[in-house]
């Protein structure tokens, strides 16, 4: 009997997916689930993690991001054909994606012996231990542009990846890689369909070039489970008369109503500490307030989560060791505690504390909306409504869209997660709300209006 119980326990443990069960699209098509529970994607762009960090540094990075509330990290598998690990192990033979360099018999515990793919295996395992999913880009767009990834190599490389990683629970595929979906379309179709055919149980999207959306080209592709936007790094002034420009919420709103219904996320907005437009020397830099704005705008417009990025961290920059891209100016392990990174947890905390799968964007809640920075984004779920003002300007909300004869309102700070009571009142008509402080960019506040009779759980925040 003891032996039988031990065997049953071992089988149960083997079936347990642990902290990162495979993700699935929710029944309504707008959100993600993990083991039947709502999953809020709080992502970070750690693009060059595999090539620039050793194992101790990787552990420090993953532990820090987990502590800050991140549960997804976006990484490149191949940035260039010459991609190597920090231990100088090349990913490919002669830069050919059709010939991954695998060294059977190498000891994966000895840095001088394991190969590139052994290292990726280890990173996946450590990410899983920290409750983090790796959203992996098989090949950056330049490999297709320069023809290393082509009609011959794409299916071979796709099969290698799918067969090696299809049993990993904490995996998401990001086909593409900062590239125009109209370029080398057949290559991306081949790579995506090959991986999906062999590995049907992991979600896949397409990471597009700046200020574009995967839905433009691939919305109906069978391998594309959810859409990804790269809203990009340009300011309103740099994008001229563009109807979207910094308005990343517009991409989300457009995808929300597309058929067939698919979830959508902004997978690369402006990075904290990167110059406006990336390539303009001496330009102003995006700060924590901008990172918060992109995040709250996207989620309230209907995104199932958000991906944050910090300039120095996304390239794992070390001064004097690597050439700086986009005017990187500090070590990654210092920049990892940038204010915006520590403030993303408050976004996740609020939405996880309320029913997520039934939430829907509702711009009609705001009776006097503005444009650009004066725009107030709003959504509602069963018994609650949420509105976000980036400038802290007063605005008027239409009541009666949620349940309850009486509602209670509070201000929630996206900077520190504190709550400020507003009051209780009848759930009808309109009401003017005036956030704390002066009206100015970065004095952002979230209005939380709830059915007074509802018993929602407390948000994990300190009292104001």
From TrEMBL:
Domain of life, source organism: Bacteria
Keywords linked to the UniProt accession: Hydrolase, Signal
SUPFAM superfamilies named among the record's database cross-references: (Trans)glycosidases
UniProt keyword Signal, yes or no: yes
GO molecular function: hydrolase activity
Disordered as annotated region, ranges: 91-110
Matching InterPro entries: Apiosidase-like_cat_dom, Collagen-bd_put, GH
Pfam families, sorted: Apiosidase, Collagen_bind_2
Residue ranges constituting the Putative collagen-binding domain according to the UniProt record: 361-450
Signal peptide residues on this chain, from the entry's feature table: 1-15
Annotated Apiosidase-like catalytic domain residues: 26-357
PANTHER family linked: ENDOGLUCANASE (PTHR37836:SF3), LMO1036 PROTEIN (PTHR37836)
Name of the protein: Glycoside hydrolase
Organism in which the protein naturally occurs: Sphingomonas psychrotolerans
């Amino acid at each position: 009997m003891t032996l039988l119980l031990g065997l049953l326990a071992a089988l149960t443990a083997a079936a347990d997916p642990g902290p990162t069960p495979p993700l699935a699209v929710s029944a309504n098509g707008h959100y993600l689930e993990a083991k039947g529970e709502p999953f809020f994607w709080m992502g970070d762009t750690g693009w060059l993690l595999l090539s620039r960090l050793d194992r101790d540094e990787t552990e420090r990075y993953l532990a820090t991001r987990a502590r800050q509330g991140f549960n997804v990290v976006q990484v490149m598998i191949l940035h260039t054909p010459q991609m190597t690990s920090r231990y100088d192990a090349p990913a490919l033979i002669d830069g050919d994606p059709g010939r991954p360099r695998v060294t059977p018999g190498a000891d994966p515990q000895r840095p001088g012996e394991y190969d590139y793919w052994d290292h990726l295996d280890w990173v996946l395992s450590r990410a899983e231990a920290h409750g983090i999913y790796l959203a992996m880009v098989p090949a950056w767009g330049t490999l297709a542009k320069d023809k290393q990834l082509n009609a011959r190599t794409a299916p071979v490389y796709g099969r290698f990846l799918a067969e090696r990683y299809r049993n990993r629970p904490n995996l998401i595929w990001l086909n593409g890689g900062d590239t125009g979906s109209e370029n080398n379309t057949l290559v991306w179709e081949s790579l995506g369909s090959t991986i999906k055919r062999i590995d049907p149980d992991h979600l896949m999207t397409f990471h597009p070039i700046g200020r574009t959306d995967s839905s433009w080209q691939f919305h109906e592709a069978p391998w594309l489970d959810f859409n990804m936007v790269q809203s990009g790094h340009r300011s309103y002034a740099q994008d001229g008369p563009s109807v979207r420009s910094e308005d990343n919420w517009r991409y989300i709103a457009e995808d929300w109503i597309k058929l067939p219904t698919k979830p959508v996320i902004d997978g690369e907005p402006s990075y904290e500490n990167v110059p406006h437009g990336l390539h303009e020397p001496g330009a102003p830099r995006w700060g924590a307030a901008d990172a918060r704005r992109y995040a709250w705008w996207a989620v309230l417009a209907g995104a199932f989560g958000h991906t944050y990025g910090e300039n120095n961290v996304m390239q794992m920059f070390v001064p004097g060791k690597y050439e700086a891209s986009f005017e990187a100016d500090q070590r990654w392990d210092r920049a990892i505690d940038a204010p915006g990174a520590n403030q993303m947890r408050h976004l996740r905390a609020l939405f996880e504390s309320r029913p997520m799968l039934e939430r829907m964007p509702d711009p009609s809640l705001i009776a006097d909306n503005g444009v650009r920075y004066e725009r107030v984004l709003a959504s509602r779920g069963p018994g609650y409504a949420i509105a976000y003002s980036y400038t802290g300007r007063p605005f008027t909300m239409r009541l009666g869209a949620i349940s309850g004869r009486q509602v209670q309102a509070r201000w929630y700070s996206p900077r520190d997660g504190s709550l400020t009571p507003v009051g209780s009142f009848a759930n009808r008509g309109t009401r003017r709300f005036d956030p704390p402080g002066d009206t100015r960019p970065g004095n952002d506040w979230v209005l939380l209006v709830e059915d007074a009779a509802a018993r929602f759980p407390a948000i994990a925040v300190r009292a104001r």
